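Hey, can you fold this one?
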Amino acid sequence: KGTNVLDAGCGFGQYSYFLSRVSKEWKIVGVEIKDEQVADCNQFFKQIKKEQQVSFQKADLTNFSHPDSYDLILSVDVMEHIEEDVQVFKNFYQSLKCEGILLISTPSDQGGSDVHQEGDVSFIEEHVRDGYNMDEIKNKLSEAGFKNVEARYSYGNPGKISWLFSMKYPIIILNISKLFFIILPFYYMLILPFCLLLNALDVKLSHRTGTGLIVKAYKL
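Sure. Predicted structure:
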């Protein structure tokens, strides 16, 4: 009770929605730089009558700082889009309460952004970096003030296969022809159960390497 959560770079609000179901007592704020996504999220949560628990606002994470305000900051698939990452980490640190936790999911340098070797170009044009080295992101978080920084690989073999079929291939085909929108629902009816099973395996297993990183850091 009384837990305040920041969904930093909330996108379409899917993680805020998940968190709102973890506990009705949590107060969740989502911030996003795109006006239309902020408006869509606020409208959706009003429609499902959760506007008192979850709210959204436009913000640039490079200058967003609310000192000692949040118990948990969640950042999923965000940091690979921001050049000034150390400044954002410092803002996160300032915005957390003492004993607060920062949880990050981001591509790794082991094939993140679908870049596997020198010369490869990501098909995701908005990324400013192809992925973090594990030691690099740990050092940057420590520089920002965080303690007890933990990191592990995600998107091992099961996750990579799931990502290819559920994300990469549909995006590539849609870029070729918008007609694929017509068959996309039927495609996911067939492929989604298989991908969800692979995702569950990816979470349960530990990986020596992976195309993603899960990073947890504490403000002590």
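The chain is about 40% helix and 25% strand. Let me know if you want another pass with a different chain boundary.
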